[in-house]
């Protein structure tokens, strides 16, 4: 029984009654308090033991259940998980239409340092600067002797560099295995492939991700372990020949840049696409911080370069006029100049007389004649036709840069806009748009969707004009080479047809340069049975082989395109043939 201690006054009264001294009562109270404290401590200890017992019981139950599961499961050797195992570095190869390798993964090593484990930081810094000349010894020493516990030195090193670092012998210098993207052909098709870099990184692995071109457009596909390769429509041999010829032509014509596109007119497959200047995707340069984007080698002129492409557009105007039944190839058109519309004056390069046939308008490249046809067509019908042809939207070509190549055209599509657009001024498109448009003329009037992927066969698009108009337009394009402004474009055995275009280059601040042009030759071959479209565009060309500088496409872009056809046609499996005489003499009547 626990005795409750009395209050001091009560204890004194009780002590007087019983004759006990106050000191004795106080000692008793102290004894009772100690007993109470021991009882409370014992109760707490018993509670803790109970909780601990329950915990051990549950732990033994979990261990027993786990042992039971292991006893009933299939035996398996345990494996240690690597720190970088969650990083998926695999990436599918990219090949051309014939299976030739364009891009693949290559195992290499990264170099990093853990300064706390370094024995001689000064020696390591000095020797590393010898192995990697782009690194500075003083910067390395500051990093090694600072507070950092980890730092990357090189994300990619060669086997020779790895051996040289091994010979330094410092335990604080370490290597991590990783994959890198390798482009075995160097600069070849660089703007198509784009390039790759590292995403999520660890010391033993790193993600390889696309940063441009098809590498970025198809990034998810290439990173999917289920896919082993991505096959493009490019022909590596043709691409190499095209790049070599275009580079020589660009230098010969003193051009700032150049682009070429070779397209199958029935499938839309791009067999070759070149943009110069170019770069090596194995060492992709950084974008310019400021200035004109077209000045960097990263700029893809074939899809990002949006230009007024001049008289190459005239064939679209003529094809539409014939399709509407407004004219036939022999219809005479008033070409007296200048053609006045308000304050505007439209002139031809030279006086072609008071009237010309529709065919002669294309052969001689008459601005006035084409503008009169546009007046007959009307602005509304012209815009609708170009919309159906794909000239007012981005091409949809499967590289990320193509989405930025949106055509520029007037919001108010007035009659004067229709007149200037009819001969390639006032509407800016990319050379890829032009290639698709000429493919529709060549294949019988069906819209073509450009693609970088190999196709199993022809793809039928929307009909934009009739086969009859297409045949008439092809005959006119052939005459441009045999009788007109593209006489340097003739290649024996391949019946080249095409149209030249020379457009004044716009100034950034408005207006046009007096001595800078964009020169283009849009061609089809063979003209009597078209298989391919070839577009060649030169930026600021000038032929200086004569006393007077010559900048027009007939003197600059056409010879380059002819040499390219001469080189690549045999590679495409095209044999030289004699052009059927009867196809040159077709008489076409008005629709």
Describe, in plain words, how this protein is organized in 3D.
- By secondary structure, the chain is α+β, with helices and mostly antiparallel strands.
- Strands 1, 2, 3, 4 and 7 form a 5-stranded mixed sheet that branches.
- Helices cover 36% and strands 19% of the residues.
- Helix 3 (121-131) runs antiparallel to helix 4 (137-144), helix 3 (121-131) runs antiparallel to helix 5 (159-168) and helix 11 packs across helix 16.
- Strand 1 (93-95) and strand 2 form a beta hairpin.
- The protein has 18 helices and 18 strands.
- It has helices at residues 8-18, 22-72, 121-131, 137-144, 159-168, 190-193, 213-217, 219-223, 236-252, 314-323, 358-364, 367-377, 379-389, 415-422, 431-442, 467-483, 557-568, 581-584, and strands spanning 93-95, 101-113, 151-157, 173-182, 195-201, 206-212, 229-231, 257-264, 270-276, 307-308, 332-334, 339-341, 344-346, 355-357, 428-429, 497-506, 512-525, 532-539.
